[in-house]
Design a protein that fits this description.
Glycoprotein, Type 4 Pilin; 2 domains; 4 strands
């Protein structure tokens, strides 16, 4: 196999090799044959081309650093996402209480006696992995529900406003500031 066939296979490296080879041909013995300078130079070039396999230590360290940076950004975002998903159970519970309190207000024409366990408003459920009954209440139509630490430890406060036979809700609580619920 001639040296120029090897050069043809490796275009960019081949051009560099050909330039180096053309500089050496004019010097020394003249035309190089099979055993001359061309053969020795091509042999060394092929051996060096095959010598580099794998990654260097600095390349591996750069990859590890990039993965570390991505993990430092992704883990807190994932944690917040998980807490929001867990707090959705508390929001669902709040929706069921809003319906029951709205019916109570419609029946009694007042928020005064719309309390958990009376007038069709269900009593507070026992705690779950995401709902904390301690600090949660439904009293006078106002709904206060608290999430566990797994759900971010935030709360939602819903206050009914009656106007002309319709009920609208004002939402406050730490779930708004943390982005766990919408107003």
């Amino acid at each position: 196999m001639s040296v120029f066939v090897v050069l043809k296979q490796h275009s960019e490296r081949g051009r560099v090799f050909q330039q180096m080879l053309s500089r050496t041909v004019g010097h020394g013995t003249g035309c190089a044959n099979r055993y001359g300078s061309h053969h020795a130079f091509a042999h060394v070039w092929r051996r060096n081309m095959n010598a580099q396999k794998g990654f260097t230590l600095i390349e591996l360290m750069i990859v590890v650093a990039i993965i570390g940076i991505l993990a430092a950004i992704a883990l807190p975002a994932y944690n917040s996402y998980t807490q929001k998903a867990r707090f959705s159970e508390v929001n669902t519970l709040a929706d069921s209480y809003k319906t029951a309190v709205a019916i109570c207000i419609n029946d009694l024409a007042s928020t005064t006696n719309c309390t958990a366990g009376t007038n069709g408003v269900p009593s507070m459920p026992s705690g779950t992995a995401n709902f904390n009954p301690t600090g949660s209440s439904v009293s006078g139509g106002t709904i206060i529900l608290v999430g566990t630490t797994a759900a971010g430890g935030v709360n939602t406060n819903l206050v009914p406003i009656t106007s002309g036979g319709s009920v609208t809700w004002t939402q406050t609580g730490s779930c708004l500031t943390n982005g766990f619920c919408k107003p």
